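Hey L., structure's done. Input below.
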Amino acid sequence: MANGTVYLVGAGPGDPDLLTLRGKARLEVAEAVVYDALIHPEVLRWVPPHAERICVGKRRGHHSWVQADITQLLIQKARQYRHVVRLKGGDPFLFGRGGEEMGDLQAAGVAVEVVPGITAGLAVPAAFGLPITHRGHSSSVVLVTGHEAAGQYPPRICWEAIARSADTIVIYMGLHHLPQIVPQLLAGGRPPSTPITLLSAGLGPPRQHWSTLGTVLAELAATPFEPPAIVTIGAVVGWAIAHRAISPATDTD
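Output:
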């Protein structure tokens, strides 16, 4: 039976200043930290010098760690140490596989504490001055992954239904699959003139690209936008552009 605790800590959207105080406190007592690829290096400055640091980051085309191996590593470290931090970008439970890890850890007898984090789907648009809800333009928002589990068929996500279900659509990890997503949103009734923006902020300089559903795929084919990115779709994007929160330029440093 394990005698340590694994803390599932959300590191936030990239900016180290957006780590929560509780997350910082858990890092300061950690004896081992298992962290993802998109964690800002400055967040790790609160980890004690003697603590183990293990990067298990998964990036497209470079999946060096499979989920089962990560879980087994956490169980092993919990049996070795009292305080183990599983440091995840954004929030552990929002497309972060935190629920999977918590269930497996608890099944192995490992105590788990969840430390919520600020998710990129809220923080990144806000950092660019884009409100994903607005009393005059958006009374509903859906947060959806653009990258379902490998081999998932039939897909759980019905993009045509999503097109009709919320004023604002925020897509995580959707850049690679936009050629499949956009036609389904159009088929679901979203007009081609619907504003869409791609926003990236976190480890590198902030970047943005705004467009419409009818033109974005041709623009990205000509000028690719490098991931990671949060895709936001809806009238609030047009509002932000009109209020110059988002500049009508492709990329901004």
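The two ends are 51 Å apart (CA to CA). Residues 247-253 have pLDDT under 50 and may be disordered.

-- N.
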